[in-house]
Amino acid sequence: MGEKSKLNIGVIGYGFMGRTHSNAFGQAPKFFDLAYQPVLKAVCGRDNDKVHSFAANWGYASFETDWRRMVERKDIDLIDIASPNDTHEEIAVAAAQAGKMVMCEKPLGRNAAEAGRMVAAVEAANVPNMVWYNYRRAPAVTLAKQLIDDGKLGKIFHYRAKFLQDWTISADLPQGGAGLWRLDAGVAGSGVTGDLLAHCVDTAIWLNGGIEKVSAITETFIKERQHVLTGKVEPVGIDDASLFLARFNNGSLATFEATRYARGHKALNTFEINGEHASIAWDLHDLHHLQYFDHRDEGKLRGWRDINVSDGDHPYVKNWWVPGTQIGYEHTFTHQVVDFVAGLSSGTPASPTFRDGLATDQVTDAVLRSAGSGQWERPGDVT
Ligand SMILES: NC(=O)c1ccc[n+]([C@@H]2O[C@H](COP(=O)([O-])OP(=O)(O)OC[C@H]3O[C@@H](n4cnc5c(N)ncnc54)[C@H](O)[C@@H]3O)[C@@H](O)[C@H]2O)c1
Q1: CATH node for 5-134
Q2: Is the CB–ligand 1 distance for residue 46 below 6 Å?
Q3: Ligand 1: distance of its center to the CA of 106 in Å?
Q4: Domain 136-373 CATH (choose: 3.60.150.10, 3.30.360.10, 2.40.110.10, 3.90.550.10)
Q5: Strand, helix or coil at 211?
Q6: What is the pLDDT of residues 7-38, one digit of tens each?
Q7: Across all residues in the chain, what is the average pLDDT?
C-alpha cells in the first residue's frame, strides 16, 4: 500500500485545547482508517521556551512564536485555532485568505458579526472549515441524534439544557491574563453565554433544529475584579450566569441555564428531551451513558433504561477497545478529527462548519440582547 497523503497541521495555542487537539490529531489515525495522515507540523505560542517544550512533548516537527508566520508557511495545509476568543477572527480570516483549511475553537467569534466575517472568508476561499463543538461526538450524544433522526421520540415537546460550574465564586479571583481571560469581556466576548451556553446551543440546534426566539436573564454577581494585566480593580463585563427560555422552529419549548456559581458543580453539562413517544437524557459527568424511556414498551416493563453506550453497535465505539470498556472526554476531539478528514475525502463537509458555528453565535447574541432589552429576541434579528 502506498503512503497516505499527508495533512500538515499547524496548531495555534498550547493551553487546554492545544493539548486536546494535539492528542486528537495523534490518536485519530491510530484507531481509525483515515484517507489522510495528520502530521503535527508546527505549534504556535508566544513564549519561546514554553512552546519549544510543548512541541517536543507532543511530537511537533517545529514551532513558531508568531501565528502570522505559521499562516504564511507553505508546508502547512490546516490552521487549527486553539487560542482565546479575541484571536479567532483575525487568524481564521488570514488563514482562509492564505488558502489553508481552518479548524477553530468555539465560540466561533466573540459575537455573530465576527463569526459572519469568518464564514465569509472561508466560503470565499472555498476552504474546508470546522468548529470544535466536540460534545456532539460523545458516542452517547451521537446516539441521541440517531434516535431522534430515526423518529424514536416522535414529535418533540421539550428541550432542557444546563451547563453548571462553580470556579468563579470567589471575589478575590482576578480577571484577565493567562488562564483568566474568560473573565475579561474584551477577550472572551461574553461570560457563560459564549463559553458554556454556546455548547448547549450547538448541541440543541443539532438535535432539535433551529431556535425561533429567546427570552433571557443574565447576572454579573461580582461587579469588579482586579485585572491581572493592569493591576487595577476594573468593572466586570461578563455575564456570570445566563438563563433563557426558547421556542424552537418545530414548536418545542426549552429552558437553558449556564452559570459559574453553582457550588459543587464542575462541568454539569446535561440535556433532556421529551417527545411524544420517548424521552432521552444525557450528562457529561457520566458521558458514556444515555438515559432512554419509551412509552411504547410493554406496560409492566416500562421504565427509564440506562444504556451503556460502549458496545460495537454504538457510534465510534468499535474502533476503540472491547465492548463494555469505556472511552472518555478526549475521544470526542479525536472523533471530530476523524469526521473532518472523512469530510475531506467524501466531499461532504463534516459539521459543525463555520456556518453552523455562526448559527450558534446568532442565538447567543440574541440571548444577550434579550437580557438587555427584557424582550423576546429572534436570532436572525439584529437591530
Ligand atoms: N471545545 C471545548 O470544549 C473548549 C474547552 C475549553 C476551551 N475552548 C475554547 O478554546 C479556546 C482556547 O481555550 P483554552 O481553554 O485552551 O485556553 P488556554 O488559556 O488554556 O490556552 C490558550 C492558549 O492560547 C495562547 N495564545 C493566546 N494568545 C495567543 C496568540 N496571539 N498567539 C498564539 N497563541 C496565543 C496562550 O498562550 C495559550 O497557550 C477558546 O476559544 C475557548 O473558548 C473550548
Answers
A1: 3.40.50.720
A2: yes
A3: 10
A4: 3.30.360.10
A5: strand
A6: 999 999 999 999 999 999 999 999 999 999 99
A7: 97
